[in-house]
Each structure stands twice: as C-alpha cells, then as structure tokens.
Amino acid sequence: MEHYSLKINGHVYETGAEPFESLLDVLREKLRLTGSKKGCDEGECGSCTVLLDGKPVLSCILMVSDVRDREVLTVEGLPQGGEPHPIQVEMTERGGIQCGYCTPGIIMSAYALLQENPRPSEDEIRFAIAGNICRCTGYSKIVEALQAAAGTPIR
Amino acid sequence: MTKKRGLGVGSMFYGIGYGFNRADIGSAYIEMADDGTTTVYSGACDMGQGIMTVVAQVAAEVVGANIDTIRVVAADTTSTPDAGPTSGSRATFVQGIAVHEAASDLHDQLMQTAAGMFECEKDELEAHNGDVYLKDANSPIASLAEVAARVHLLGGRCASWGWHDNSTADVDPATSQGDAYASYGWASQLAEVEVDTETGHVKVLKIVSATDAGKAINPVAVEGQIQGGAAMGVGYALYEQHILDEGVPRTDSLAFYLVPTSMDVPEIQCEIVEVYDPKGPFGAKGIAEPATVPTTPAILNAIYDAIGIRITDTPATPERVFQAIQEARARGEFKD
Q1: Which residue of B has its CA nearest to A39?
Q2: What is the mean pLDDT of the segment spanning A54-71?
Q3: Confidence band (pLDDT; 50, 70, 90) for A115?
Q4: How far apart are the C-alpha atoms of B66 and B189, rounded to whole Å?
Q5: Which residues of B touch A42 (CB under 8 A)?
Q6: Beta strand B38-42 with B202-212: parallel, antiparallel or unpaired?
Q7: Among A37, A57, A56, which Cα is nearest to A47's?
Q8: Inter-chain contact B265–A140, Cβ cutoff 8 Å?
Q9: Which of A142, A70, A69 is nearest to A101 (CA)?
Q10: Bridge partners, A148 (sequence order)
Q11: C-alpha distance from A127 to closest chain B C-alpha (Å)
C-alpha cells in the first residue's frame, strides 16, 4: 500500500492505495466520492468520466499512481457556493435525467466541452458525449439540456 | 450516388399491465401531517421511469395539495405496501389508481372535518394547491394544513390507503381467444434512413413517434420515455446483437454488444396522442414498451424503401445490408 496525496475538486485528500488501483475505486471506495459511477469498469460506458487537468478521462481505466500531482475534478466539484452548476440545473429541469446512472459522466463530458467551446453546435454536443452511453433518454433531452446550459438555440 | 434515402412506418398495439389473469396489484398508504405535508408510501419502484413523480402529481391533484408538500417514500419493504414490479408498462396505469384511491379517501376525510369547522356540507367544499375553498369562491377559507391539524386534534383519521387490482380474466385455454389485457396502447412511428450502398451502413436521420398515452400526466416524462424507447428500437434494428457460442455469451461487454450512442440516435419528434382511458388515473395508460416496439419495423421498412431489399434479420448490420445488396446485384435486381 502506497500513500497518495490527491488533488481533487480543489482539496487535498490523503489516502492509502495500491498503485494499480483505479482512480474510480479510490474515489468511490476510499474517499467516498460516489458521484462518479462504475458502469462497465472497462472504459466503454463513460459513467466514470472525471476531468484530469481539465480533460475528460475514464477514471475506471486510470491507475491512481498516474494521478499524482495532477488536478482531478469530479461531479462533486461542480457546484459553487452550494448552488448546482447550470449544466446540473438544466439536466434536472429538462428531463435529461431518468435513471441517473450516466448523468455524472455526461455532466463532466459536457463541462469539459463548454470549458473549451462555450457555444457548441448540436453536432459538437453529440460528439462530446458520444463516449457516455445512456440507455434511458434517447439523448434528446440531454442534448436539449446542454444546449440550454450553453445558451444556444434548442431544436 | 452511393447513398439512398427511404421512409418507413411501423405500427403496433400492446397490452398494458400483466393480463392473462396474472396478479396485477397496486397499493399505497397516504398520510397528512399537521403542517400539511403529505407522505405517500408507494410500493412502485422508480428506476428512472418517473413513477415517483407521477405518484406525487396524482396525490397532489386528488388531495388538493401543493405538489411541493408531497413526500413520496417508494419501494421500501419496511414501510411501503407491495405494488408489484415497474414493468409491463403498468406502473402509472395500476399504481396511479391505487394512489388515486388513497388520496381520494384522505381528501374526503379532510373535507368532512372542514365542513364541521365551517358549518357547511362537505360537498360545498373543494381543495386545490394546499387551500380549502367554498366551491367557486376566489379566496380560501382555510389551508389544508389547518384542517389536517384539526383532524389530528379531534383524534380523527388523517391517513388512508388505496389498493387496486388490475388483474384480468384469462383467455380461453382451448382457443386462446379473449380480452387478455385491461387496456391496450397504440403507437406508430416514422423513420427516415440513409443507406450507404458501398458499405451497407444505415444511418437513421429522423424518427417521428406518435404514442397513445391516454393522458400525459407528466408530458416531459412521457416524451423522455418515448425518446428512450425509440433509441432502444434503433439499437434493436441496427446494432444490438447477442451472440451465443455453444451457450457461452460472446457479446458480454459493451465493447462487443453495441448500444446506440448520442451520434447514432437521431432527432426524435414526439407526438403524444391522448385518448382518455377510463381504467387509468385521469385517463392515463402505460407508454414505455409501446414506444419501443414500432421503431425497428419502421427502420427496416425505411431500408426497403431506400434500396428495395427486405432485411429480415436484426440487427441490420453493415455486413448484412452489404451482403443483401451484393446478392441483389448478382441477380441483376439492384440499381446503383
């Protein structure tokens, strides 16, 4: 067991972990940051998406030892001053959430997109979340919610 | 042009609830506290279909409460009565009535007490949005919370329960004839596709889905179910293939069993058709599975419209479509 100081959501978390443990398992099991979901645990479904130095990554196939000295942002880090992020508000208000399992991953992919491209087209939104599988919504209301969060016209 | 476009329609009807004399039960408890907070103990489990919201809406409407004061405790075996699974497109249809019954009886208790408070007949009163009114009056005479507090003070009953049996008679075992289900849902979908005749790749460009909801209690949730249903139908038509090799699943991961992504599912236009169903809460019935069934035939018909070839095995993968085109070319039956 190694000792890790992890920079997550602007805080430093101290934890013991095996170097080969996934970031997702450390987040969920050691740090109890259970917002990131474990869907497939093999990098296919996107529900574990977090930001690493601002870029979306799949935390289930990332070893915790690769995260040293880097900035991790999880869905728990998005609200500011106790208020949910606009992406979270729109996803909730517009029916972008049904079972909710893909939701944290979708929100993190969308957040990364909007950081880079604040007014994306519908195609750019669909491309950005193509790695996040949703089985409930048919994506329509997710895309609508993200368009609303970006302030772009909704079809 | 290697890309050909086509339109196709799929239509269906589908039994709502379990039918065939299988147990089809909904049940719920309801209670209003002194502060007007109403708790519904509902046995129906919400896995994203929205039944908790529907339960809250039905309870609020029938009791006359503000929906913000409704608390739903759902699918907890220590506190909620059994309402069966959320499946068979039955939750709104069956549990909605059970909640309606419970809420209706609670409403009655409250109005009875209010009638005593204001020395009038129960039938002269109504409640909406958390307040009690003399019928047709503009300003309330009391809040439901005040009435509930009064009921408690008098040692009256401010709680109730509802139970609904949606089980049907079975069909004739000899002839299989009969009316198997309590109700039926109806749906039609239109799909537009583009088939690449060089690769066999099929892209769905748009789906229009018209689904009979009876009454859309929560239109946003109904649209969500319709759009989700169409997306599953796209998967069934084009991507999802379960391969068994001597009984061993070979498609046991999302890397091999492909489900549609945001790039594969097109715009889905929803047309909610409302034909009042006398057996459902406020006329509503289930729409979940009905929204899935017509998608695949609509897409396969659209492929036929585009290339003149019937694909009869699903999913219509590029390999299958390309092979069918090649065979038609070899027979001289395909015009590029």
Answers
A1: B254
A2: 96
A3: very high
A4: 37
A5: 253-255
A6: unpaired
A7: A37
A8: yes
A9: A142
A10: none
A11: 6
Residue A151 has pLDDT above 90, yes or no: yes
The mean pLDDT of A15-20, rounded to a whole number, is 96
Pair B105, B42: CB distance under 8 Å: no
B314: its two tokens: 């699903």
| Beta-carbon separation of A136 and B48 below 8 A | yes
Between CA B53 and CA B178 the distance in angstroms is: 34
Q: Give buried/exposed letters for B32-58 (b at 16+ CB in 10 A, else e).
A: bbeebebbbbbbbbbbbbbbbbbbbbb
Asked: is A2-76 a CATH 3.10.20.30 domain? The reply is yes
- Scan for tokens 């601002």, then name that residue: A54
DSSP string, B96-156: HHHHHHHHHHHHHHHHHHHHHHTTS-GGGEEEETTEEEETT-SS-SEEHHHHHHHHHHTT-
Residue B303 tokens, joined:
């492929």
In total, chain A counts a number of residues equal to 155
Give whole-number Cα distances, A109 to A43, B98, B121, in Å. Answer: 14, 41, 59
Distance of CA B261 to the CA centre of its chain: 22
**Rounded Cα–Cα distance for residues B195 and B321 (Å):** 9
Is there a contact between B228 and A138 if contact means CB atoms under 8 Å apart? Answer: yes
CA distance B311 to A62: 42
What end-to-end distance do the CA atoms of chain B give, in Å? Answer: 8
State residue B195's pLDDT score: 98
pLDDT < 50 regions, chain B: none
Whether A130 has its CB under 8 Å from any CB of chain B: the answer is yes
How far is B256 from B243, CA to CA, in rounded Å?
9
Helix (H, G, I), strand (E, B) or coil at B205: strand
**Which domains, ranges and CATH numbers included, belong to chain B?**
3-15+182-330 (3.30.365.10), 25-165 (3.30.365.10)
The CATH number of the domain covering residues in A86-150? 1.10.150.120
Question: How far is CA B182 from each of CA B12, B82, B95, B316, rounded to the nearest angstrom?
Answer: 17, 20, 14, 35
Helix (H, G, I), strand (E, B) or coil at B204: strand
Task: Give the neighbor-by-neighbor strand order of the sheet with B125-128.
Answer: B125-128, B131-134, B142-143
**At CA A64, angle to CA A61 and CA A67, rounded to 5?**
100
Tokens 């039938």 identify what position? B123
- At residue A155, the pLDDT reads 75
**Residue B1 pLDDT:** 66
